[in-house]
Structure formats: structure tokens, C-alpha cells
Amino acid sequence: MKWLIFGGDEMTIKEKKELAVKVIARLEEVYPDAICSLTYSQPHELMIAGRLSAQCTDARVNIVTKELFSKYRSIEDFADANVDEVAEIVRPCGLYKTKAKSIVEMCTQLRDEHGGKIPDTLEELTKLSGIGRKTANLIMGDVHHKPAVVTDTHCIRITGRLGLVKNKEPAKVEAELWKILPPEKSSDFCHRLVLFGREYCKARGERCAECPLGDICSHYAKSKR
């Protein structure tokens, strides 16, 4: 099976797997530490930060959660919290009423249905209020240390430019990446894409001429034609 990629060329699944391995190796050299960009100290805090990150920058989320996590320290605290009070704290993240409601509901579910433990399957995680596949995968990788593919805006943009995927819809990008990424590398790969996206492969003003992936990038090759 051959896939049409950005730039008009074609690659087989085998070729995409080989390219993915090269990209992963390069990013490991540039970013030895695959660090999550959201600040948290407890698993449920990462879930909440992930929820707040929808249509909001991680930098802003980290500012807001500093106050939020100092006031509500446990799953029980959040489950018992007043939604309006939570909403006022998370207001800078946007969609604050909806996010506050889902945070309290999520923690109530964790307390009442899961005994205060974080589910370890995508199916169970995505049943929680406000938790989509992106955040569920983040939890699978960072909390449970299992293979995960976090399709945030950096992941979608960069894997498309590299020619690894042909779609832009998060679910479709995730499905394509599951087919070509080494499972044991997938979670850290996504973290490194965030770092790489902020430094080189930006949404606007990308630094292609200086990029450590320039010689294996479909997007850069197309721009040179």
C-alpha cells in the first residue's frame, strides 16, 4: 500500500517506518530529555492540566494550575469543589465554565467509580468527563508508561510536513502514527515534537534552513523545488 504525502511523492508503510526511526533518532540527539510541557506532581493533575490545555497554550495552563493545585490538592478536593470557584481560577484558559464543570465531574468519577485511581486503558480514560484521546494518550504514556500517541497541534503539523502522515484530523493522524512508530518510542517522540515545534518547525516562521531534520523532510524538499 502506498500513501500520497505532502509534496506529491509516495512512500510505502515500510518506508514511513524507516523515516520515523530516522526522525526519532535525530530528535533524541537534539532533545535527550523528553519532558512533558505541562507542570504536575500527581497523576490527576496531569489529567486536569490536559483538560485545560484545549485551545490554550501550555505556558498559560502552567500559570493557572500553580494556583489551582495549591488550593485543591487531591482528587477528593476537586470532587468536592464548587464549580464556580474552580471556574474563576481557570478563567484565563478560556471555555472556563465548561472546563471547570468537567474537571469537577471527572474527579467525582475518579473518586466514586475508580476508587481514586487513574484508569490505565484508553477506553476507560475517555469515559471520564472532558477527557479526549489526546489527554488519554498523555496519561497512558506519562502516568502508566505505556505506548501512546499524543496528537496535539505540534504532532499534527510536524508529522504532516515530514511526510509521515497524510491527514490533519487528530484521530486519523493518531491511527496512521500507530502503524509506523515503534511503540516503545511513541510517547517520548510526541514530547520531543513539542520541543522541536517550538524551536524549529513553527506554525509560522519555521527555521527550515537550520533544521536538524531538513535533509529528510518532505516539506523542506518541496520548498526547494
Describe it for me?
This protein is mostly helical and 225 residues long. The chain starts with a strand and ends with a helix. Helix 2 (43-52) runs antiparallel to helix 6 (96-113) and helix 2 runs antiparallel to helix 8. Residues 1-8 have low confidence and may be disordered. It folds into two domains: 2-30 and 148-223, Endonuclease Iii, domain 2; 43-142, Endonuclease III, domain 1 (Orthogonal Bundle), CATH 1.10.340. The chain is 58% helix and 3% strand.
Short summary:
The protein has 225 residues and is an all-alpha fold.
Question: What brief labels describe this structure?
Answer:
225 residues, mainly alpha, Endonuclease Iii, domain 2, Endonuclease III, domain 1, two-stranded antiparallel sheet, 12 helices, 58% helix, disordered N terminus
